């Protein structure tokens, strides 16, 4: 979200937050959580950031032992 203040339903976890990127952590068909990163800079996150964070989340999911997901 380039500007969290432009979204009426945004719930701020940090008063200094101006932009945010959220990547779901999914194993199979199960949502395990989300990676939520805030920035005090508006429009801070790019598509390249999203792609890299999605790759990092994929690596994390692959590292979870089978049966504990």
Please tell me the overall pLDDT.
88
| Second rung of CATH, namely the architecture | 2-Layer Sandwich
* Gyration radius from CA atoms, angstroms: 14 Å
**CATH fold description:** Beta-Lactamase
Global shape: elongated
**Number of alpha- plus pi-helical segments:** 1
Strand content: 25-35%
What class, by secondary structure content? alpha+beta
Count of individual domains: 1
Major β-sheet annotation:
2 strands, antiparallel
Binned, the helix content reads: 10-25%
Strand order of the largest sheet: 1-2
General description of the model:
There is one protein chain. This protein is an alpha+beta fold and 69 residues long. The chain has one domain: Beta-Lactamase (2-Layer Sandwich). The protein contains one helix and two strands; from the N terminus they run ββα. It has one helix at 47-63, and strands at residues 19-27, 30-39. Strands 1-2 form a two-stranded antiparallel ribbon. The longest helix has 17 residues, at 47-63. The protein is elongated and about 40 Å long. The chain starts with 18 loop residues before the first strand and ends in a 6-residue tail after the last helix.
């Amino acid at each position: 979200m380039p500007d969290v203040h432009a979204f009426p339903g945004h719930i701020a976890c940090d008063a200094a937050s101006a932009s945010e990127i959220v990547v779901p952590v999914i194993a199979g068909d199960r949502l395990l959580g989300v990676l939520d990163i805030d920035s005090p800079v508006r429009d801070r996150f790019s598509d390249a950031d999203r792609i890299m964070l999605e790759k990092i989340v994929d690596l994390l999911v692959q590292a979870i032992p089978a049966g504990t997901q």
